[in-house]
Amino acid sequence: MNKRDYYEVLGINKSATSKDIKQAYRKLAIKYHPDRNEGNKNAEEKFKEAAEAYEVLSNAEKKARYDQFGHQGMAGGGGFGGGFSNMSDIFEQHGDIFGDIFGSAFGRQSSGRRVTKGSNLRIRIKLSLKEIHEGAVKKIKIKRLVPDPETKFKTCSYCNGTGKITKVANTILGQMQTTSVCHYCQGSGKIVTSKSRNANSNGMISKEELTEISIPAGVSEGMQLKVREKGNHAPFGGIPGDLLVLIEEESHPELVREGKNLHFDLYISIPDAVIGCQAEVPTINGKAKINIQSGVQSGKILRLKSKGLSDIESGLKGDLLVHINVWTPNSINKEQKKFFVEQSNAKEFRPQPKNQKSFFEKVKEMFN
Ligand SMILES: [Zn+2]
């Protein structure tokens, strides 16, 4: 048997990138897809040929072996052998290549059982820090595909409702039995006989539903939650797809989040720093009062234990870290100026940084 060169099959050259390879395969797979070429043996062969070429060229290891040894390198050795004998194996392995073009009934068909899964839906949810802190339940309207109650079906007569076609061929090794997905009903075992105007070819309609989504405390920007079976229904029964929820974090006007810890920049006046004071700081749930000791320095970090967010895994609470900044006024009156001039030579006002922790020690302290 003379096998065509894999690059030739996909119509690409050896310098093609993995993206080019995928695109070339996708184009051919759609062109020769059994849904568009019912009962066309030639198309089926082309479809299998492209799948085989893609199987090899999309895998770095197999591609390297093929580039070096050609088809000789592909037989045996635990590598890729004679290609796909079964169409459903192709769908099982390359189903994602079709995206939503052919719906989920075919693309994600499992070769063993006739279980189909609907496609996933994706949404974004924006949460405030308070909602992230407490966990939230959101009720959201979502449009999903559901079976149209007016659509009528009949059992596929081609496969007798099994969704599979079994063929027996006589070969030199004796009889060989192969099973493939029924092209006529796309493996569902059912054929749509009448449907309402809004239904698609699989007898599905888009319906808006209110879905309740529970979000655990401690989620963060970019996290994806999966709500099982709240995506599109699969045509002709099966399992609905999932609803994938992407978390977005609303920034807080005053607090900055860092993992489970929160940071706040507190500004105090020079007199308050000198004589000590009580200050109010924002927390996730309202204000908190803290005592600032006399002689506090700019850059000091005060830790409010357990005033941070919950850790999503352990549930342990983080801290609120208050960064002290002593505010230096940029305009003062004559009397104030006189006071500071008088104090400028006083030894109490002279910096004594040797007694202070260094910047690095403070940072270290912050992370302990
Ligand atoms: Zn059928």
Q: Report helical residue fraction.
A: 10-25%
CATH superfamily of the largest domain: Urease metallochaperone UreE, N-terminal domain
**Total strands:** 15
What is the tally of helical segments?
A: 10
Gross CATH architecture of the largest domain? Sandwich
Unreliable segments (pLDDT under 50, ≥5 consecutive)?
76-82, 102-113
Main β-sheet, in a few words? 4 strands, mixed
Instruction: Name the strands of the widest sheet in spatial order.
Output: 10-11-15-14
Rounded mean pLDDT is 85
Distance N to C terminus:
70 Å
Binned strand content: 25-35%
Count the domains: 4
What is the CATH first-level class name of the largest domain? Mainly Beta
CATH topology group of the largest domain: HSP40/DNAj peptide-binding domain
- Which overall shape is indicated by the principal axes computed on the Cα atoms? elongated
Topology (elements, then pairings):
Elements: H1 6-10, H2 18-31, H3 41-57, H4 60-69, H5 87-94, H6 103-107, E1 121-127, H7 129-134, E2 136-147, E3 152-155, E4 164-171, E5 174-181, E6 190-194, E7 204-215, E8 224-227, E9 243-249, E10 256-258, E11 261-269, H8 270-275, E12 277-283, E13 286-292, E14 301-304, E15 320-327, H9 334-343, H10 359-366
Parallel strand pairs: 1-9, 11-15
Antiparallel strand pairs: 2-7, 3-6, 4-5, 8-9, 10-11, 12-13, 14-15
Bound molecules: zinc ion.
